[in-house]
Design brief:
Length: 477
């Protein structure tokens, strides 16, 4: 899932109804908090390379090299677009039975892509066309690397973290990723002064190699030997991956959750590129004040993540809600906060704007962590040995939504300005549409896993031959 929160519950599928997996699944011991922290270091390493390539190189291309902002926008879009490969990467780790080789291999490609992209950016100063061509190759490596590494890392968390700890584990891993991105952005900014192409390449190489070394050390011994490789169980005449993807898409809960992820993340990302321009146009914020507004939103998101980490867990004998409730509630509160921004466009400077933005961040953070915790729980529901395909499918839906969301939000605001002639009314219209999308996402989240029970005769009729993993069709919700 995204770098902002990115591709999820105790009540989505009752634990007693969970299908039984093939022999050998779950034979390894759960990962403790130390193992979760080590996987968080891997996520931090991933975030460090991604922020260097999507933020620092973006700035160098636009400011130092005076290139059109469209170029880095297209390169980042390639990084998102290639994440449609996530289901295929997840399937590969399902068949192999181990996630570590895919995490390490993906990080190696990501690190190589970071160095290539930096070298390409430095080369653009002398050979612009050749540098741009090399940059496209670098961002292809980045997209493939993120797909392989990020998908298998989430699968490993989903399979090896005990259920009551999954929301908290997701929070830890995502906070460590955010910390890795923030530290890398700040450190790289200082090391790049004064800027030179050689310094840019040296910093990118140091960050990429350091991230890869950290990944190797953090993963050492975490997964263990793992279960035996899973059977490909493809249908006759169809490629194994296509058969596996069709099997997952045929599962109602997995399909519903995919649609929910796409709609919610589209609404979640569509606000990114227009919130600061809205603050400048309606409230007269300076560039510095607009940047500080981002800190207010991120502070709210951090608080929301920490609150959602309580979901499904028991503290002092009390349970603080379910992941489903936090997901639905986060979507509804996000919609309310966006409607507050609509009101801000109407009332102007008299509106408590910063408090409204903090509430939006709070709701976004709570919803995102609860959704990730739900995803981790649902990964093992349904046909056995398909966890990687499910998480890959959801990660691809998130990446596509993120790639479209920012462009859609900015494009819609420009169109609304042309039609309405008033910037405040234009931004308010876009925020209202995003609020409706969050409400739609809340309805979808509430429906995930709720379907009629399948008659026992149908379950018996669909029972596979001995030795084949079963497809349990049970009442959920």
């Amino acid at each position: 899932m995204s770098t902002r929160a990115g591709p999820p519950q105790a009540v989505l599928v009752p634990s007693g109804d969970r299908p039984r997996h093939a022999a050998g699944e779950g034979s390894t011991s759960p990962i403790g908090w130390g193992g979760v922290a080590r996987l968080g270091l891997v996520q931090a390493a991933l975030g460090a390379i991604v922020v260097l390539t999507t933020s620092t190189l973006n700035r160098v291309m636009v400011v130092e090299l005076a290139l059109p902002a469209l170029l880095p926008g297209v390169l980042v879009a390639i990084h998102y677009g290639l994440q449609v490969l996530r289901p295929r990467m997840g399937f590969g780790s399902d068949v192999g039975g181990r996630r570590t080789p895919w995490i390490v291999g993906g990080m190696a490609l990501l690190a190589l892509g970071g160095v290539v992209a930096a070298a390409a950016t430095a080369w653009m100063a002398e050979q612009r066309a050749a540098g741009i061509a090399l940059a496209f190759a670098g961002f292809v490596l980045i997209g493939v690397g993120v797909s392989a590494c990020g998908t298998s890392l989430l699968v490993l968390l989903a399979k090896r973290v005990a259920e009551p700890r999954r929301a908290a584990a997701a929070t830890i891993v995502w906070l460590m990723m955010i910390a890795g991105m923030a530290c890398t952005a700040g450190l790289a900014g200082r090391l790049l002064e004064p800027y030179s192409p050689a310094r840019l390449l040296a910093v990118a190489a140091a960050v990429s190699l350091g991230a890869f070394a950290m990944t190797l050390l953090a993963l050492w011994g975490v997964e263990g030997r793992g279960p035996a490789p899973a059977a490909a169980d493809a249908e006759p005449g169809r490629p194994a991956f296509r058969a596996a993807l069709a099997q997952v898409w045929a599962e109602p809960a997995a399909r519903q959750f995919t649609v929910f992820i796409f709609v919610s993340m589209l609404a979640y990302s569509a606000q990114d590129l227009i919130l600061e321009p809205f603050a400048g146009s309606v409230f007269g914020f300076t560039p510095g004040q607009s940047t500080s507004l981002s800190g207010v939103q991120h502070g709210g998101a951090l608080a929301g993540m920490l609150l959602a980490a309580l979901a499904g867990g028991r503290f002092a004998g009390r349970q603080f809600g379910s992941l489903r409730a936090w997901t639905v509630g986060g979507c509804i509160t996000s919609a309310a906060a966006l409607l507050g921004l609509v009101a801000a466009g109407v009332f102007g400077p008299g509106w408590p704007f910063k408090a409204n933005v903090f509430l939006l961040g709070l709701a976004n953070g709570a919803f995102a962590i609860a959704a990730i915790g739900s995803m981790m729980r649902m990964a093992g529901e349904g046909r056995a040995s398909r966890e990687g395909v499910r998480i890959g499918l959801w990660g691809a839906a998130q990446a596509i939504a993120f790639g479209l969301g920012g462009m859609a939000g900015a494009g819609a605001s420009d169109l609304a300005k042309m039609l309405l002639g008033d910037p405040a009314a234009a931004y308010a219209t876009v925020f209202a549409v995003e609020a409706l999308m969050f409400l739609w996402a809340a309805v979808l989240a509430a429906r995930v896993g709720r379907m009629p029970a399948v008659p026992a005769a149908r379950v018996r009729a669909s029972r596979p031959a001995a030795g084949e993993p079963s497809i349990a069709m049970t009442e959920q919700g």
